[in-house]
Amino acid sequence: MDEQQQKQWLLEHANEVLKRVGIAPGQVVVDFGCGRGGYALAASRLVGEEGRVYAVDRDLEVLEELRGQLPDDMSNLIMVHVKNITLRLDASSVEWILLFDVLHMVEESDLLLHELARVLKPDGQLCVYPMHLSVETLTDDMQRAGFALAQEHYQGQILVFSPQADA
User: Fold this and answer.
1) What Å distances lie between residue 131 and 2, 52, 99, CA to CA?
2) Could you tell me whether strands 147-153 and 120-129 are parallel, antiparallel, or unpaired per DSSP bridges?
3) What DSSP element (H or E) covers 138?
């Protein structure tokens, strides 16, 4: 499968993929670099009315497109426009963070990972689709930021990291 086919498959199976990694009703999820929101929408359906999804992006136009796609009854999805990597969320307030094909576009990825660690609960998970990054480079970067590889899905295409206890 080429890159475009891989991305398309993942988007078409977003609900299944997110459920498989462990996103469940009542949880709080951040989709950082959400783009047009395919994963944010799937996460919103999975967490249900008791959960919350923050669709975070620096591109206001794609957030507006996403807003236009929202069903009237989907009140748990909140669009967040950011100009930098700082999230206006409380510390230890999020169970899941999605970084799907976005980390390679962030110039200050070490600062981003520290910010994500700040908002992630101690038992939270960071789920990465590392397109454009080698698993070795990603794992090294994550370890430096205080995360350990916890799960691999779909032959290593989806990686889940947990905060290290001693970080």
Assistant:
1) 11, 26, 10
2) unpaired
3) helix 135-144
Question: Looking at the chain, which runs of residues are DSSP E strands?
Answer: 28-32, 52-57, 77-81, 94-100, 120-129, 147-153, 158-163
pTM of the model: 0.90
Give the pLDDT of residue 1.
60
**Cα–Cα dist 124/20, whole Å:** 15
Q: Report the largest interatomic distance among the alpha carbons of the chain, rounded to a whole angstrom.
A: 44
Pick the CATH number of 24-132+141-153 from 3.40.1500.10, 3.30.2350.10, 3.40.225.10, 3.40.50.150: 3.40.50.150
Mean pLDDT of 146-166: 87
Smallest CA-to-CA distance from 98 within 34, 143, 26, 14 is with 34
Find out whether 103 and 138 touch, Cβ atoms under 8 Å: yes
User: What ranges do the domains of the chain cover?
Assistant: 24-132+141-153
Angle made by CA atoms 65, 75, 43, in degrees to the nearest 5: 75
Q: Are the CB atoms for 3 and 140 separated by under 8 Å? A: no
Cβ atoms within 10 A of the Cβ of 126, count? Answer: 24
pLDDT confidence of residue 115:
92
How far are the Cα atoms of 89, 117, 121 from residue 165, in angstroms, in the given order? 22, 12, 12
